[in-house]
Design brief:
The chain is of the alpha/beta class. It has a single domain, classed as HUPs (Rossmann fold, 3-Layer(aba) Sandwich), CATH 3.40.50.620. It is 35% helix and 11% strand. It has a five-stranded parallel beta sheet with strand order 3-2-1-4-5, with helices on both faces. Helix 1 crosses helix 6 and helix 6 crosses helix 7. The radius of gyration is 17 Å and the shape is globular. 42% of the residues are buried.
C-alpha cells in the first residue's frame, strides 16, 4: 500500500479523515501536535484513533503559546453559545495563527522522507468556525507550494493534499465515519474541556458536533458537563 501522511488531532473530523484514507488503500502515518493547546486531551484521543486504524503515529511538540493570539493557546476566554447561523461569518478568537500552514509543513517534510506523495487533512469549509486556512483556495495554494519547494517536487514526484471533508456538513461527516467504523466515543472535539474528559457543550466545536448527531438521530458518545 502507498504511504500517506494524515494530520490527526484526535477530533471528529481528523478521525473520519484517517478512516477515509485507510478505506482508499493507504498505509497511514498519523501526525499529531502538542502545540500548547488548552484542549491537550485530544492527544490521548489521537493515540486511540491511530491504534484503532493501525496507523503509525508521531507527535511533534511545538510551543505555539509563545506566539499567542488565540484562545486555544493563550489565557483568553473561549467563545461560548454563539448562534450556529453566525458560525463561519467571521474569524473567531479560537483561530490559531498559521496553524494549518505549520502543521502541513511538518506533514510535507515527513511525506518527503517516507516516500509518501499524499497528505490528508480534515478541514471543512461548510460547518466550521470561519478559519481562513480551511478553505479550498488555501489548500490549492499549499499544494502548489509543496510541489515547488521540495526536492521530490523538483524531481517530478507530485504531492497531493487530500481534503475529503471540505465540502461536507458535519452531519455528513459523522454519517461517513460511522459507515467506516469510527468510534466517536474515542474522539475529543471540545475547545475548553473540564478537568478530565468532560466536554463543555457550549464552544463552537461542541455545538457543531452536537447538531450533527442530533440531525442524524444518533446519540453523541462524548461525555458532557
Amino acid at each position: 500500500m502507498p504511504n500517506a501522511v494524515v494530520l490527526l488531532s484526535g477530533g471528529m473530523d481528523s478521525a473520519t479523515t484517517l478512516a477515509i484514507a485507510r478505506s482508499r488503500g493507504f498505509d497511514c502515518l498519523a501526525l499529531s501536535f502538542s502545540y500548547g493547546q488548552r484542549h491537550a486531551l485530544e492527544l490521548d484521543a489521537a493515540r486511540r484513533v491511530a491504534e484503532r486504524f493501525g496507523a503509525r503515529q508521531e507527535t511533534v511538540a511545538i510551543d505555539l503559546r509563545a506566539v499567542g493570539g488565540s484562545a486555544l493557546t493563550a489565557d483568553l476566554p473561549v467563545p461560548k453559545d454563539r448562534p450556529l447561523r453566525e458560525l463561519g461569518g467571521d474569524i473567531p478568537i479560537t483561530y490559531v495563527p498559521a496553524r494549518n500552514t505549520i502543521f502541513l509543513s511538518f506533514a510535507l517534510a515527513w511525506a518527503e522522507v517516507t516516500d509518501a506523495r499524499d497528505i490528508f487533512l480534515g478541514v471543512n469549509a461548510l460547518d466550521y468556525s470561519g478559519y481562513p486556512d480551511c478553505r479550498p483556495d488555501y489548500i490549492a495554494a499549499f499544494e502548489r507550494l509543496a510541489n515547488l519547494g521540495t526536492r521530490a517536487g523538483a524531481e517530478g514526484k507530485r504531492f497531493t493534499v487530500h481534503t475529503p471533508l471540505i465540502a461536507l456538513t458535519k452531519r455528513e461527516i459523522v454519517a461517513a465515519g460511522l459507515e467506516l467504523g469510527v468510534d466517536y466515543g474515542m474522539t475529543v472535539s471540545c475547545y475548553d474541556p473540564a478537568p478530565g474528559p468532560l466536554a463543555c457543550g457550549h464552544c463552537d466545536a461542541c455545538l457543531l458536533r452536537l447538531r450533527a448527531f442530533a440531525e442524524l438521530g444518533t446519540p453523541d458518545p462524548a461525555a458532557y458537563r
